[in-house]
Design brief:
Number of helices: 9
Number of domains: 2
Strand content: 5-15%
Number of strands: 5
Radius of gyration: 17 Å
Shape: globular
Oligomer: single chain
Structural class: alpha/beta
Length: 218
Amino acid sequence: MEQYVAKVRGHAVAFYSYVDSPGFMSKVRQLERFFERLPDRHLAALYPIFAMENKPGGRAGGGTWRPDEVRSNFSRPGHERNTGIPFSEFERLVLPYNQGVIGLSRDRWERPMGRLEFTVMHEVGHCIDSAFGPSGLLPRRVREADFEGMATNRCGAGGAMTRRAVEAYARMICRPSRVFHNRPLRESAAHANERLIGALRRSPAFRDVPEAWMPTGN
């Protein structure tokens, strides 16, 4: 097991790798600059991030599990074999702190930078959505038009609108200059970004985020 704890403005972001994959430390250090873009409120709510062989059910991909879901998803012997992580590790690192888990299978973790940060921030979006939820990233009176231009993608958590919001969150953090997938023809790129970021900022997850906060970077 490799471990790295990134310190971002006094918050600890914990990474644990249980796969024999080269470059773990280098990737984590490169990911740090994306975590620096998160509001403090979100950094404080993050679950630890685990690189594992596969998800508990045996499939590749990313996943986010709430604190009440960790035991049922990671404690079974077959699930331990799938992840490559003994449940005693979650009992040591997660359960005493009432935390959930962000998990990435080996194939996701081995994506190169340029793709990996979107994968990680997508799962961070699910974490934030559940930490301030249910549906913590959706405005109270969400409309279809709020997230127009966002693909629903194939992730299974939440409804289509939640999936759009989670993907918008990931893209806002990684590339705030182009949050949308496909903007409507009647709308400029700048206005599409403003609309999507504005929708996220009206959500419960952003309730106590300072008005002056904005994502930075390209």
